[in-house]
Amino acid sequence: MTKTTLKPSSLGPARAALKKANLAYTQAYPGESSRRQPVHTVYGGAQIFKSDTARKMGQTALATLQDSAPDAKTFAECLGFPKTGGFGKRVYERVVAKLEREPVEDFRIDFEDGYGHRPDAEEDGHAVSAAEETAKGLKEGTLPPFIGIRIKSLSEELFDRSLRTLDLFVSTLLERSGGKLPPNFVITLPKITVVEQVTALVRLLEALEKAKKLRTGSIPIELMVETPQSLFDADGRLALTDLVAAAEGRCVGAHLGVYDFTASLNITAAYQSMAHPACDVARHLMQLALAGTGVALSDGATNVMPVGPHKKDAKKALTPAQKKENREVVHRAWRLAYDHTRHSLERAIYQGWDLHPAQLPVRYAAVYAFFLEGLDPASRRLKSFIDKAAQATLLGDVFDDAATGQGLLNYFLRGISCGAITEEEALATGLTLEELRSRSFLKILNGRRQASAR
């Protein structure tokens, strides 16, 4: 029998150093989060936000759908869905149901680009009124599942204004709500140029939480990538990981701001687009920097609105020619938004921005088509993967591909949470509803192992 040469005593220092590094890696890269990620964020100016804004946006979206695609056939022809097998009908019916049930998944009350620069007294008033409407929506159950505010940047020129708006909004909200924050409430920080801006926001939130007797870390943040300095620092190093680290565990998302980003690269307005190659560079860098960290990625918005040139008038009905022109304009904008959304989804960026209620039908149509197209192969793959993983676990073998398993599971969790896939359709994977709702691949494996041991 051959004897080993290395002694445990000689391995001690190397093993201790490796263990420390492995644990640090696990902490920095916990893997893809199993928490729900909204498929979009709708941005709207703080000056017009009301507690029932999400519901009204759904009504407007349904009206646009009825005017521009009153049936599944028209919608499918506009977006290029398959003409056979009832695919277009299935997508259309689920889009309608979504707009009736939950038209907005995430809403950002905007004090930045969607709001503009206003006199201090006016912004003070809107910070208070928007907070009061948020508290009212929280009480009445009319808020979307995710909500937050986008403050102005923390540049030297705007720091004081941004801080005051943040303080007024959060303080008023907590006062009106009895000290409660809405579920999934977040602060979005735009136009980041130095890591100290993120650090400053963290310190400000800590002070607010302490003063308001909230648990430290109660208010998460999102980082906007819309300057080159958000991606690379002055020394040419990738900056995004440092920005996330500076958030000290608060960062839950990174959003690409397409139009500010392209403008910062001196790309003229005519060519600033979701499809510009510079945006793909930014997307890929964001993915490379944040893969495995649990920070969710979001793409930007299509800035061509699906709004026809002719407005309805109670005194005079639109002519057939005007209705036709309106529909053609909406369809062109929908096709563009559909292509942009598919571009993001195919690159594994599952969230984007919407700026107008009429964009909601095409947002959900693109997302639903994407998930439904891949449903059957994904079901077979996850079923096979779980069977093999469970078998390895039962036999005492090491199964170290849990991240892939969680990624496959997350496909179904994303599809179910947004309404693209029903729970019944997901059962084709061989999972139970209880297993699906656990949202954890490891919990599923552990549960099956314990059940087999009994």
UniProtKB/TrEMBL annotation:
Gene3D superfamilies in alphabetical order: Phosphoenolpyruvate-binding domains
InterPro entries: DUF6986 (IPR054255), Pyrv/PenolPyrv_kinase-like_dom (IPR015813), Pyrv_kinase-like_dom_sf (IPR040442)
Highest taxon listed in the record's lineage: Bacteria
Ranges where the record places region Disordered: 113-135
Record-level GO BP terms: oxaloacetate metabolic process
Cofactor: Mg(2+)
GO MF term list: lyase activity; magnesium ion binding
The keyword Thylakoid is assigned to this record: no
UniProt name for this protein: HpcH/HpaI aldolase/citrate lyase family protein
Organism: Stigmatella erecta
Keywords for the protein's UniProt record, in alphabetical order: Lyase, Magnesium, Metal-binding
Biased composition (Basic and acidic residues): 113-126
